[in-house]
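Quick log. Single chain, no ligands specified.
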Amino acid sequence: MVGDPALLDRLLVTLDVDVESFALCQVERGRRLIGEAVDAVMVHYVLAGTHYMTIRGHEPLVCPAGSIVILPPSLQPRVSLDGGPAVDVVAREHSTLTREGLFSVDATTSGAYDLCYVSGIVEASFFGSFGLFDNLTKPVAQHVGEHQIVQQAFGVMVDEVGSPGLGARALTSALMKACLVLMIRQTLENGGEGSSMVGALSDRRLGRSIAAVLDRPADPHTADSMAEIARMSRASFYRAFAEAFDMTPKQFVAKTRLHHAAQMLRSTPLPVKLIAGNVGFSSRSHFSRLFSEAYGVDPSEFRAQTRNRPTDPPKAVH
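-> predicted structure:
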């Protein structure tokens, strides 16, 4: 196990997960499904058969049924039943929208498949401040087949995406979060390469400062105060933080506060000025400017647009 288990538990409680779309992919032996390189994290769950994935510049991944595979953005996966000769099938050309948000990708000649898996676009972040997969540079996989809840969860997610009922997006996000937490727990216990998913948190010093901001975003956090919590010099803390999270401590604090504010705008009738103060901004105009930069609209318009939709994480804050 890396880092402090108690700290990781606290951080995982703040994990926000959003599922954008799902595709049910079927592949027969002798055919290879060529996916698209998308600017998002992809999650594959293997329902049946052996998931043999190759990506240029990376070692092949061979995953049995019951495995979860995480792909960082901008990688083009090639999936087949084995590493033998195969006919390439471009996923986009064999994709059918069966129901809203649910695609069927058929890489078979007769409808009979040897490999079946679910592919989804997923966004996961710790309270909108930094992504769970930000430090992931290569695909990772973990077999979670012994957890029956995972297979059941993916079945429900596919049904909910394809035929959404009341609270469908909240339900699919909660189920995906449960699956990812189980994967993280098992990966860390096994000491596998997938621990890079939370590798930046293996430094307990950084973890303490992160937890303090997530727990109390309205406090007057500065690089100096965060370095003191981490028990590091300011220069060492600033350098380690920037390397781990690709942002400055000040940007991290701002993103965390804005995410809190976005949730409050969605779920409460509190005035914008009061929300700004509650999350640590002394000036409404300063808050509104940063919020507009992060979300593309001012707080009032955001509230009007998103009262019935999940809160997206903020973009880069300058």
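The mean pLDDT is 84.
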